[in-house]
Amino acid sequence: MQKNQGLLKQFGEIVKTHREVRGFTQQELAVRAGMTEKHVGEIERGVTEPSITAIAALASGLQVTMTELMPDKERQVSAPPQISYAKWQTVYESTLELNDAAREALDFGDALRGDTPPPRRRPQPRQFQKRTPPARRKKGRRRD
Asked: So what's the architecture of 5-82 in CATH?
């Protein structure tokens, strides 16, 4: 399937416009969207074709709907919400705390009923094995 370069460039320009209107750097948008700064830059330049999940993440990070990111000739950028990065970070951290509290409450309710919640699988850090270098041959005369 061939990429439509014009459409990708239009989409990237829309993302960049929304980002600049809100005063975000590519790095801040990447953090908000849960992707790398490099990927955001590639999308803005029209180099890469974003997946539907990447578009949804960008819309969430920019606090717009996915429809607002779609290229359209008569579209104008909506006014950004008035929230600073520090406030956004506070809201984000509060949301994480609320999620943890809700998870604990659900676990407590399961314990009262006698239900056991399914075990949570946490990602394990990768263990790298050390490679031992091959044995070196001594230089010099060969003895048989």
From this structure: Orthogonal Bundle (1.10)
